[in-house]
Design goal:
It contains 15 helices and 9 strands. With about 325 residues, the protein is α/β, with parallel strands linked by helices. Bound molecules: coproporphyrinogen III (CP3).
Amino acid sequence: MNRLTDCIIHKKSSGIPVWFMRQAGRYLPEFREIRKNNLNFIKLCLSSDLVKDITIQPLKRFDLDAVIIFSDILMIPYGLGQEVEFKKGYGPALGKIDLERIINTNSEDFIKKINPVYEGIKKVKKEIKDKSIIGFVGAPWTLLLYMINRQSPKKNFSFNEINKNKSLINKLLKKIETTICLHIEKQIEAGANVIQIFDSWAGLLPEKELKNYCYTPTLRIVDHVKSLNIPVICFPKGIGKNYIDFNSTVKPDCISIDYEVDPKWIKEKLKGTPIQGGLDPKILLTDKENIKKNTEHYIKIFSDYPYVFNLGHGVLPETKPETIEYLIQIIRNKG
Ligand code: CP3
């Protein structure tokens, strides 16, 4: 047992666990050093030794309760045979959908293509004993969106455009769901002992579509993780007051909130489901006093509630590593 599982499985409210989304990433000079020599991001995610090294990098600096495996949610489309590239200053660029090819990719093909991800997890497991190892997946909707939109929806997005071809969507969603379950199983088999599901773009769904594209497919994934006896954290980013419906329908072991959610309000409404995150990552770009004030705000509200300290989204590349150090110091003194 450790602080994270004490909180999300046993619902303890003392000794606040802490980890950060994107804790391994571009704000760390040691990551940028490796990245400089590995310009192909997918290839980097398929180098099991580097996956291990990058995953562990933040632990070497900070007193964290968990590592999150260095990988990407887009390894699923890649493993299904869709081209995925990360272009500098542009973000992910995906190839055209070849539905035949995707549907015909069986479990063995998929596993073979991204096996180094699992090898990387095994290597992490060998080095880490007392901390949680978080594996992750993109939620069905967020993956469907990237696969059809072929680029970040920040650049170009229309729900009606995505929703047009029902037959394509239904076939694709089904394949995505089974592949997510497979990817989760393989991560657990390799050593992951907590799973987080990122629905980064749930907030783009029209409210009346949330059930169909977010709650129902996510519930199937959550039930699958639970059947494997592993705790699952859900992050349906940007759905505002619908966090409550999400929680009562999907019933994750822990729910991760974004920076737009009022922490007092959600604590009242959720009545016991462990909560993670919330602090706006942009706060970490401001001065120490402001960081302290905002951090203590979350800690105070959740002092009598099972709470995992994290941010309301990933650590921004502009964040100073010393700021993360400072933040952890505040949390450890108060927890
Ligand atoms: O430390 C960690 O959190 C683990 C590693 C991790 C990455 N991506 C590494 C990464 C995780 C958990 C992800 C998840 C991910 N990937 C999400 C869900 C979380 C979120 O941020 O909403 C999404 C939407 C993606 C897709 C993705 N990957 C985008 C849009 C981009 C480019 C823009 C960006 O934010 O960097 C990536 C690339 C990526 N994934 C990088 C890293 C460290 C940056 C690569 C680089 O340019 O060096």
